[in-house]
Amino acid sequence: MVLQNKEEELLAAWRALAGNLVTEGWRTIPIAYGGPRRLLAGRHFPGNEEALLVGFASVRLPPNEQLPQGQGFIVSRATLDEDGADRIWISLRRQSAGSLDLFTMMAEDVVSILERFSNADEERLFHLFLARIKAWQDFMRRGGDCVLGPEMEVGLFGELEILRDIISVGLPAPVAVEAWQGPLDGIQDFMLGAGAIEVKSTASPSGFPATVGSLDQLDDSLTRPIFLAGVRLAIAASGRTLPEQVGELRNLMREEFTALGILDSRLLHAGFLDAAAERYTRRFLRAGSKTFQLSDGFPRLTRANVAIEIRRARYEIDLDLISTVDVGIEHALRELGVIH
Fold it and tell me: What value does the mean pLDDT take over residues 173-192?
């Protein structure tokens, strides 16, 4: 039987390696992706846990206790027999309490990342590997389904629209994607220069409801200047799905390996999984956008204008009712000092 994808190859390899060894050690099988002898499917005994092993010719490893672990998996250095003695092996190993389905999805994703960046140097590849594992830690910590809910789907699509705008007006892709802090739970979505851009998106056919998550999010006494970018989306057959939006951005950055690596990590932090791409069926068209610079007259709640007894707030404003001038993204980036 011909195996159709990485998931099937990994599962088949793990089945072939299953056993009941009493002594501690590894059983491994080379897998086809990532170059010769770079990737192995394995099982660690006596626990019989599934693993993905990545071989590096020469990298500087942190101590084992500083490597990612938890959420159903552990990363550690693996000592193989003499057949693997020419490489430094790092194992991504499922813990006994971890979900096999989720671990398989994680391993498949890591294989895809290593395959995509197979031409990168060893140090870069190693750091990509660790960054991806840490992004998975964050993803697993959030729990829930592997698919974003409708509001989060709209929010992510809108943030990617603004990311595309930022690049199109002249900011280098690595700088732009590094500035995208929304998936990392930043107070604002993009931190640029001394200030920030916060993105609000809606697919509502009436009004422009925008939820503000905290008293700090639109407070330009903390970060200045702050711009609020609103992206209106329409659901239409001629639009793009979220995975298509992601694919177009990856294509835009296809020559920028650093930017691509950061983008993929941010997407996972945001809750987007390529393995779940077929479950996103809504198609969005950009129906309009506006960018406001926050000033004293802008309607918002901050710590300075609410009673001291109010410690936290989450509220909604309607951007369609705001009369502040739309300054556009290019002007915002000039004011932030990141383009000339």
Answer: 96
